[in-house]
Every structure is written in C-alpha cells, then in structure tokens.
Design goal:
The protein has helices spanning 85-92, 106-115, 119-122, 145-151, 209-228, 250-254, 264-277, 304-334, 378-385, 398-401, 429-437, 459-464, 517-533, 539-542; strands at 10-13, 61-67, 95-101, 155-161, 176-180, 192-193, 196-197, 233-238, 341-347, 402-408, 418-420, 424-425, 444-445, 448-449, 471-476, 479-484, 487-491, 498-501, 560-563. The protein has one domain (29-469): Alkaline Phosphatase, subunit A. The strands form 4 sheets. Strands 2, 3, 4, 5, 6, 7, 8, 9, 10, 11 and 12 form an 11-stranded mixed β-sheet that branches. The protein has a 4-stranded antiparallel β-sheet with strand order 15-16-17-18, with helices on one face. A hairpin with a 2-residue loop joins strand 16 (479-484) and strand 17 (487-491). By secondary structure, the chain is an alpha/beta fold. It is built from 14 helices and 19 strands. This is Arylsulfatase.
Length: 570
C-alpha cells in the first residue's frame, strides 16, 4: 500500500544537498570580431493553428531572458519586495502569465525551453552529467530554437549559463555564445567564447558576472547591427542570478539593509494579501502553513542576523539582474529595435531550499569567495520567494514549478499591463517562437529524425487568454504530476497521488483524491501513457548511472523527503 504523506508533518532533507553551481565570470570589454551570420532561410513558413493577431510582416527579434533559481513572486510585478523597475516596466507594457510552469530543475528546464520537448525526450532529464546517457547532453533527435531560427535567417546569440552537458551552445545553433561555468560570481575563470576559454587577465578589475554577461550580449548585438542589420536576431540571455553562492556587490546589498527585518512569516502574509490585491491569485486561495514545506517559523530561527544578511544579498542579486535587463532594454530602445522585439522573461525553477543549514555564522554571505557549502538562504526565505505556493525547486508541487512569465512585444501585442491565467509550460516556448518568427518545426534536421514538438504556441494566450492544450505533464526525481483543465494530480516520489482543483485551490491545500477516485485513475492513466511515450525512466533505472554515491546522496544528489514521526496519513 502506498504511503500517504501529511502536508503538515514532513521535513525536507536538504542540508547537504548541492545542485547546479551558479555560473560566474565577466569583464568590461566588448566582443571583438564579428559573428558569422547565417544565410537566408531554406525552411521557413508559418505554423498552423490559431493566431488571433498575426505578428508584424517583418520578422521580430526574439530575446529570451532566463533567471536562475528565482521564486514565483520575488519581483515587484508579482508582488515581491525586491526593486525591479525594469521588469515591472516590461510587465506594465506587456503581458504577465500567472500559471506558467517550468520543470523544477535547472538542466531539464533549459532542455525543454530550447527544444519544445519534455527533458526526458531531449536527453537531459536530470542535472547535467549526473546519470550517464539520461543526462549527458541534448541528443540528436531534438532540435533547438537556435538551430531552427538560424535556418530561418536569424543571427543567433547566447550569453550566460548553458548547463546542458557536453554539447556546447555553438554546436547547437548559436553563432556566438559566451558560456559561463558554475561558481563564484566574482571569478573570471572558465569563461568560453564558442568553446574556447578566454584569458582571465583580459577582464577588468571591477568584475561581476551578471554585469559581464550583459556587456557580452550588448556587444554581440552591436556587432550584429554592423554586420547584418537587415537580419533579425535571437538572443538567449541566461543569467546565473540569484542561484547560489550568495554573492553581490556591496552597493546593491546596502539597499536592502533592514528591508526584511520582520522575518519570513510576516512578510509572506503581507505578500500574499498584496498578490490578491494585484489580481495575481484567486481570493479563494489559502496561504499554506510554513510547516507544509518543512520550513521553520521566524520565531524559532536561531541565526536571525545571518539569515537577514542572506536575504539581503539574495535580493541584491535579483536587483542587479534587473539593472542589467534595463541596460539591455535601453540598448534595444536606442537602436529602434524594441518595438518589434518579442521579449520573454522567466525562471528555470522555483525558489531553492538547498543548503539550509549554516556551518559557520561568522562567515557572512555577500562578497567574493563566499561558498555555498557554508549555507544558503534557507527554506524560510525560499517559502517567501515562492509565495503563495508550497515546496521548492526539485518538486512538482506548485512551489517547485511556478514561475513569473513576462511578455513584451509592442508590435505584436494589442493590450498592455494585462494578466493571462491560461496554463502553459516550457514545451510551449518553441512553437511560440516559431509562430512569431514565421518559422517551421522540422521533421528532420541535418539528416536526423526529430521528435515531434510537445508544445502549443502561446500567442493565442498572449492575445486572448486561450489555448487548445489539453494536458500538462511534469516529472523530476520521481516527483510527478499531470494537469487537465483545473485538475492537477501530483505526488512525491514513493507517495500516493494527491488531487487538487487549482481553480479553487491553487495553493494545493485540499487533497480531493479520496473523494474523486475515478478522476485520479483517469489522470494517472494519462500520466503513465505520457511517461512511457516521453522516455521517463524510473529512478532505479537511471540511478545505475549515478556518479559517486549510488543512493544519490552527497553534495550533488537528489533530495530525500523525510517525515516527522507518524507522518503517514493526515
């Protein structure tokens, strides 16, 4: 008989867990040399399906901006307390999706975003390099957005974190790619341009990787204008903020001194009320208790000053990212390109509760050299980041997969400042970009058969909050879920299915599985059919490839769910 987990009676075993290490690097010099630009399209054509308001006749530029480990409501336009005026301005002049989801983890999300497939189909079902062929690289039966757009006449560029295994971005369709490794935000080591390592001595002394990534991206676009101004471009801007380690510039940290002093309990309740007032969440939804996610109350926190510093640094990292997004947007505005640029902003997973234990409170987060092994911002602040949802990165309950999603496209959107509540997920990115650009998804690519796209274009959602997509699926580390209309079936690894009506209960508070056994069977059957089709392996099948501890423990192993005594049942 399957175990039934109590929402109010479990803990998360996260203390020793690592994940993806944040990318680092930077400098102050612009890109030297010009990109090799693609030829004219040989495979263009509009996708079928509904398009209430077709894109402008001229192909739009496309910019995808991805944050790393940022929660659903960290930014201002989603109710957050961090200063994000540039993202807020994009939202005020664009569209916000309130029910967009990722895949709960870094590498799988990036694989799904770029390919229009579920990560298991694309060859990146888990953290890169962890489990042999299941996570080695993007496989040969998928095609990336960059590869398709390059064939359609776009210049294709990337700056930031790749995290998709041994196949590098310039080998998957990018004309120019500044590829940043994991690690210290103040480090200049390991940065690559199209696979070649750059000399750290070439970077300036005032270095912070978020700044440098943006400088590289701006430089690539400036060169694109000089070399091929008549061609549209695709920019994949993949920031490493606010992923650990907690490192930010002193002037940014100083802005947040005292802002979070009330603690996560009070601030979370305030944010929840604010989000209702903003129309982001339904008035019927309830705020889950912190204990539902294994997080302590602020009153019980024994290292308050350290935790406050951690949150101040985290906010500074998000703030700096927003400043740099402002730099990028201003470049597009000054060049006259912003009007016909489709810009999409999102995060790769929910807020992150890894490394919740503090080893040494004398070591404060913030400056160069701070290591995540000493501690991250913890489950309490991660719960604030993920308000109103419960759970975190790794899980497919809403806290692990819900992300902000901002669309800005003056030439292609009729309305401004509106919310769209139709569900969508990362597989929908590819068909959206292809419809906007008038490109076609290929059946074959360079002689290889390509798996059919799993997504649907989101342009109908952007325009009129409509979609013909019937099911959404998720799986990561044995945590799995399926959504059909308002119903979501979800479970933790090795535990029983839970059923929620997300229209009335978007925070997953009231499990209806016992009252709706027929619906549970219907949705679980659909999940099993999808899992078979999408190449979802059982944990015991891919763990045989595990590097290090075969149980998946250790600094880079998957999370273990731990319960209090008597956790079975409610």
């Amino acid at each position: 008989m399957e175990k039934k987990i109590s929402r109010r009676a479990f803990m998360i075993g996260l203390g020793a867990l690592g994940g993806t290490i944040a990318a680092a690097s930077a400098g102050a010099w612009l890109l030297g040399g010009s990109p090799k630009l693609p030829g004219e399209s040989t495979a263009s054509g509009e996708l079928g399906g509904p398009a209430p308001s077709l894109p402008p006749k001229k192909k739009p530029n496309i910019v995808v901006i991805l944050a790393d480990d940022m929660g659903y409501s960290d930014i201002g336009c989603y109710g957050g307390m961090t200063d994000t005026p540039n993202l807020d301005a994009l939202a005020a002049n664009g569209v916000r999706l309130t029910q967009f989801t990722n895949t709960a983890r870094c590498s799988p999300s990036r694989a799904s975003l770029l390919t229009g497939l579920h990560p298991h189909q694309a060859g990146m079902a888990h953290l890169q390099g962890m489990y042999g062929p299941y996570t080695e690289k993007l496989n040969d039966n998928c095609v990336t957005i960059a590869e398709v757009l390059k064939e359609s006449g776009y210049g294709t560029y990337m700056a930031g974190k790749w995290h998709l295994g041994s196949g590098l971005p310039h080998q998957r369709g990018f004309d120019q790619a500044y590829h940043y490794p994991g690690g210290d935000f103040f480090s200049k080591k390991g940065i690559m341009l199209n696979g070649g390592k750059l000399n750290p001595d070439a970077f300036g002394s005032e270095y912070y990787s978020t700044d440098d990534m943006t400088t590289r991206a701006i430089g690539m676009l400036e060169n694109h204008r000089k070399q091929a101004a008549e061609k549209p471009f695709f920019l994949y801007m993949t920031y490493t903020a606010p992923h650990f380690p907690l490192q930010a510039k002193a002037k940014d940290i100083a802005k947040y001194k005292g802002r979070f002093d009330q603690g996560w309990d009070a601030l979370r309740k305030q944010k929840f009320d604010r989000m209702k007032q903003m129309g982001l969440i339904d008035p019927r939804w309830e705020l889950p208790a912190l204990s539902d996610s294994g997080a302590p109350s602020w009153d019980k926190e024994t290292s308050k000053s350290w935790r406050l510093r951690a949150m101040e640094v985290y906010a500074a990292m998000v703030d700096c990212m927003d400043q740099n997004i402002g730099r990028l947007v201003e470049t597009l505005r000054a060049s006259g390109e912003l009007e016909n640029t489709l810009l999409l902003f999102l995060s790769d997973n929910g807020g992150n509760a890894e490394f919740l234990n503090i080893k040494n409170t004398a070591k404060l987060p913030g400056g160069p050299g701070y290591a995540v092994a000493n501690g991250h911002y913890g489950a309490g602040w991660a719960s604030l980041s993920n308000t109103p949802f419960r759970m975190f990165k790794h899980y497919v309950h809403q806290g692990g997969i819900a992300t902000p999603f901002i669309v800005h496209w003056p030439a292609g959107l009729k309305e401004k400042g509106v919310l769209r509540k139709t569900p969508a997920q990362l597989t929908d990115m590819m068909p959206t970009v292809l419809e906007a650009s008038g490109s076609s998804y290929p059946e074959t690519f360079k002689g290889r058969a390509i798996i059919p796209s799993e997504g649907r274009s989101m342009i109908p959602i952007f325009q009129s909050d409509q979609s013909d997509k019937s099911y959404l699926f998720w799986e990561h580390e044995g945590n799995c879920g399926v959504r059909h209309n308002q119903w979501k079936l979800v479970k933790f690894e090795k535990y029983a299915w839970e059923l929620y009506d997300l229209e009335k209960d978007g925070t997953e508070m009231h499990d209806l599985a016992a009252q709706q056994p027929d619906l549970v069977k219907q949705l679980s059957d659909e999940y099993e059919k999808w899992a078979k089709r999408a190449n979802v392996l059982k944990k015991e099948d891919y763990m045989k490839y595990a590097k290090g501890d075969k149980d998946g423990e250790g600094p880079n192993g998957p999370i273990n769910l731990r319960t209090f005594k008597g956790a079975a049942g409610k």
